[in-house]
Amino acid sequence: MMKIAVAAIGTQVAGHFGHCENFIFFDTADGKIVAVNSVPNPGHRPGFLPNFLADNGAQVIISGGMGGGAVDIFNERGVEVIVGVQGEAQVAVETYLRGELISTGSICHQHEHAHECGEHN
């Protein structure tokens, strides 16, 4: 069982994590979605949302864009971050479950810890 959270505007992946309207939690098992639960964005303030999602059991977060601070907290909490995603939230989750959803958003330049992003030689 894995819980995947999507930052959304309605049923579409939100362009920016903190400014989404709602978070859709997808409970998945055996590569399939078994339950869906949408909750309103409880409010954008520094450091709150990543911990809120992790506390609610999210193991993966899918979003359009995300600031480096949120990424750092997700990393500390062991939540996989996938950014640069567009379109229907459920399609994004199904694509992720097939192993085909690639995080395209670069977040390294938004914080000073670029050496942690694995791009050094």
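(ticket continues) Second input and output from the same batch:
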Amino acid sequence: MKKILLACSAGMSTSLLVAKMEEAAKSRGLEVSIWAVSQDKANADMEKADVLLIGPQMRFLKKKFEKTAGEVGIPLEVIDSMAYGRLDGEAVLNRALDLIGNH
């Protein structure tokens, strides 16, 4: 099972995106665990994840999370702002799976 962590400012704006990603995964028969947390909880949750995706509004925090992501050995990327804005769960899910597969 792939574990995908999303982080945003308060952990709320990504909850709709998580639901869309879960729908996309279910329609493809994929077993994934996807959850969203606020920025202050992301470091703690990284240990349980295979990838961390950061909301575009938190782009400036990428360097802060890179240290922990490197220590726990997971890829990290800022979510594409177009996919985020459109709540394109399929695109974001595909990118997360690519990052996990290439890691």
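Agent notes: The mean pLDDT is 93. The two ends are 15 Å apart (CA to CA). Closing as not reproducible unless the customer responds.
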